[in-house]
Amino acid sequence: MTPRADTAVLPSDALVLGVDVGGTTIKGEVTDGAGTVLAVGAVATPHGTAAFDAMGELGDRLLADLPESDRRRVRRAAVVLPGIVDTARSVAVFSSNVGWRDVHVGDRFTERWGVPTLIEHDVAVAGWAEWRYGAGRGYDNVCVVVLGTGISGTLSVGGRLVRSSYGQVGEYGHVPVRRVGGLPCACGNTGCVETVASGAAIARAYTRRTGRETSGAAEIFALMSTDPDAAAVVADAVDALADGLVGIVHAACPELVVLGGGLAGAGAALTEPLHRALSDRLRLVPAPRVVLGEFGARAGLAGAALFARRGALT
């Protein structure tokens, strides 16, 4: 079957526009086939449906920044969205962080920018990019974990990206691991991984333990070698993350766990203890290697460009 024109792989001389919508910032880039950035920009994310106007305006500006000869080479765009995304119906179903519900995206960006525009879930695209083109390339069985304000990720098994019937990927942050004595989670459950191992949870735990405010989880990781309280908070977070992942490892036997998102900036201070914690919990299946993602905090934006170029998460 011949691929539809709007999802065929683009030729190497085509340019693409990628837009990554975050809870605080909307980022965009125009890139060529080698990944060279020709136009870049970012705007604050407005609350609610106004965010879609901001996405459109950012795309307008990036396209206008190009010389006319380059503007004619832009062949496709991709917008990756947080929350729940129904790609089949082109609907942004829900985002608690940004505050929209059941927004029909349809052809609004295609008509506005004059190029076919795909939409997808931001974590699905980021995890796919790390698996296919980043730290997980060459492996068929990969678990990507995006660690930041929340925790989520993707799972690839047998060379295929695992997704629900409505397109969701892994809600790893909402696996309950501290039912007894755990903290309430925004999802309505108690003791989810996210209440212990997310960046915000690590910072809050340190403040509860010491009474001292911090600038965030990165500061806690930096204090680990000299501050026993910081080391204890990180150890608890790693244990919670390992408890949440161990069932996934038993079920799917990934060869690799790739860590992305803001917390991956901790580097070996996170990858090494997580590998040890998983190894301590596993008896029947081998412990996967734990590595850092290659795209880092840019995984969503880099993934949007790759998705636009490839036309599908294959």
Describe the secondary structure blueprint for this structure.
Elements: E1 15-21, E2 25-31, E3 37-44, H1 50-64, H2 68-71, E4 74-81, E5 84-86, E6 91-95, E7 100-104, H3 108-113, E8 117-121, H4 122-133, E9 142-147, E10 151-157, E11 160-161, H5 194-197, H6 199-210, H7 217-223, H8 228-252, E12 256-260, H9 268-281, E13 289-292, H10 299-310
Parallel strand pairs: 1-4, 4-8, 9-12, 12-13
Antiparallel strand pairs: 1-2, 2-3, 5-6, 6-7, 9-10, 10-11
Helix pairs in contact: 4-10, 6-7, 6-8, 8-9
Give a summary of the structure in a few sentences.
This is Glucokinase. This protein is of the alpha/beta class.
- Mean pLDDT equals 93
Question: How large is the radius of gyration?
Answer: 20 Å
Biggest pleated sheet = 5 strands, mixed
Which geometry do the CA atoms define? globular
- Main sheet strand line-up: 3-2-1-4-8
Helix tally equals 10
Quote the beta fraction.
Answer: 15-25%
Protein architecture, described:
- With 314 residues, the protein is an alpha/beta fold.
- Helices cover 35% and strands 23% of the residues.
- It contains 10 helices and 13 strands.
- It has helices spanning 50-64, 68-71, 108-113, 122-133, 194-197, 199-210, 217-223, 228-252, 268-281, 299-310, and strands at residues 15-21, 25-31, 37-44, 74-81, 84-86, 91-95, 100-104, 117-121, 142-147, 151-157, 160-161, 256-260, 289-292.
- It has a 5-stranded mixed beta sheet with strand order 3-2-1-4-8, with helices on both faces. Strands 11-10-9-12-13 form a 5-stranded mixed beta sheet, sandwiched between helices.
- The chain starts with 14 loop residues before the first strand and ends with a helix.
- Mean pLDDT is 93; it is low at 1-5.
- This is Glucokinase.
- InterPro entries: ATPase_NBD (IPR043129), ROK (IPR000600).
- Belongs to the ROK (NagC/XylR) family.
